[in-house]
Predict the 3D structure of the following.
Amino acid sequence: AMVGGHLIWDAALVLACATAIYVTLSPPADAPPTFSNALRAVLCGSMGLGVGFAVNTIPSSLFSFSDYFSIAAFTGEVLYAGVITMVAVILQAFLALQAEDTASPLVKALLVFLKTAFNFVAAWAWQGALNLA
């Protein structure tokens, strides 16, 4: 999707940067409830939302091939949203098991971020389908 227009690369760059920011800034689970830790938690939470939006710009641009309502575009968005939702459910279970088996706090933070980010990918997918309805 728009390789020359950098759409795929932009989404990949957002994913990489947001993941690095999340893993770096994520406060530990036993961190005291301070203003700076609350700010870090809010910033980390917004990274998943940004990744969900960036990733969904790719299918949205693929399915919006016309300026008017199209049954094919709507069907494509709904199928995409359904598949992404099922993948999100499977990933939730898989990543939770992986998080239990790792001792590294950085790997745990990464796995938590991926779970959060993929929830937002699914949410933005459904939002894209509803926009076409």
